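Hi V.,

You were right to ask for the full record rather than a summary. Here it is.
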Amino acid sequence: MLARLVKGLAVRSRRPVSVVAREWFARYLQVVAVPILWLYAEHGVALEAHQLNTLVVVNAGGWPVGGRFRTSRAVHLAASRATDFERWAPCTAENVDWVIEDAFADELLGYHLGADNLMGLIGAFGSQGLADEHELLSDLRGMLTRFAARKGPVPTVISALLDSPTIRCAVNTGM
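Predicted structure:
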């Protein structure tokens, strides 16, 4: 489906598929990934934003214009932010299932958004021959670097995604 979408955009715009794929990915980063990172940085809300929970909204032309998160069971709040969040949502701190340690929130966001969602999307572009994965990884690094340089809090998960030689991930052993 991604290949058909991107190839169709390339034909309609008379541009190379690889150029359109990089632009599509850049738009996805801005309208899906950046808001998820912002929500965590500003409010401590960590979404399990893996591919199954994250829906991309595309306009009539096929370009990403937004994102939707499809489940409330995979929403967590970093414990250090629970008191601040309590002002908006009373009884937040009492809900033990949704308030988790900051380090675990970082790990969940790093895995779900970083490894599963974004790396999975980069892999899809590469496996379909739409774009060079190294270029997309560079684009991702650029977005993360810009996010880290913005005014406002920068969660440690950003540093981990930028600097760690590995990203922890889950393995589904059930068959």
